[in-house]
Amino acid sequence: MRGRFRVFDTHTHIGTALHSGRQYSADQLLRAMDRAGIDRSLVIPFPVVADARAAHDEIGRAVQAHPDRLSGVVCLNPFLPRAEFLDEVRRAVETYGFRALKLQPQYQPLNPLWRTSDFFFETALEHRLPIICHTGSGIPYSLPALMMDPARRYPDLKIVLAHCGGGLLVGEAIVAADFCPNIYLELSSLMPNHVLEVMHRVPSSRLMIGSDLAENLDVEIGKIEGLAVNDEDKRRVLWETGCAVFGG
Ligand SMILES: [Zn+2]
Q1: Which among 51, 103, 149, 182 would be 20 to 30 A from 159, CA to CA?
Q2: Residues within 5 Å of ion ligand 1 by Cβ?
Q3: CA 183 to ligand 1 centroid distance, Å
Q4: Cα 178 to averaged position of ligand 1 atoms, centre (Å)
């Protein structure tokens, strides 16, 4: 609870990132959540790890120890041998109850327009997992508009555009959400004026917050708290949309 709002951070990471060298534990995350007044966090593996299965296990153990605070997300190289990919998604869902499937196109160049990528979306649907797709850095496959194609072809699939195009592509993310009712926007890294632009066009029932990294928590939440919008919209962005998409 932060002030009068509960808060669901729908985008954060623990583990060891090979690309950046960052190392962050579940205990560090929980302490940061307590400091910032975060009720729940959705925990995603870093996109480049030495062992994706071990990364899922680390998050899974934290979820099992703190089911009231944490939920997990599957993030896996989509170019693994297909059976290995499918087995690990199933294992993470069945063992730890993971709630979403992450695509990080900056490091996992899956083209959503190619039919060879359909297995990715169909796997998410089979396990009733929303997809979280990083957008912004990592062009071309991180362009928000590319997700409009699977969103149209799989209307029962919820697709969350992480970072909402990352500032530069915020307009494209707005158009994607405007045209596709199953596209949701996660607002981390936007400036407050961008968030207002988004809220002018996309209902708050499809907007959610994320921090990406715990040191961003106060800024990411503060920018929503400080907006000149009504409390109902703030409540949806800070808490309700995340619960509706990923489960509370
Ligand atoms: Zn991230």
Answers
A1: 51
A2: 212
A3: 18
A4: 24
Domain that residue 201 falls in: 8-246
Residue 116 lies in a domain: yes
* Number of domain units in the chain: 1
Question: Residue 2: inside a domain, yes or no?
Answer: no
Q: Letter for the amino acid at 72?
A: G
Q: Is residue 85 part of a domain?
A: yes
- Residues 195-224: tens digit of each pLDDT: 999 999 999 999 999 999 999 999 999 999
Average pLDDT over every residue of 235-248: 96
Ligand 1 centroid, distance to 238 Cα (angstroms): 17
* Cα 133 to ligand 1 centre (Å): 10
Question: How far does the centroid of ligand 1 lie from the alpha carbon of residue 5, in Å?
Answer: 23
Q: What is the pLDDT of residue 75?
A: 98
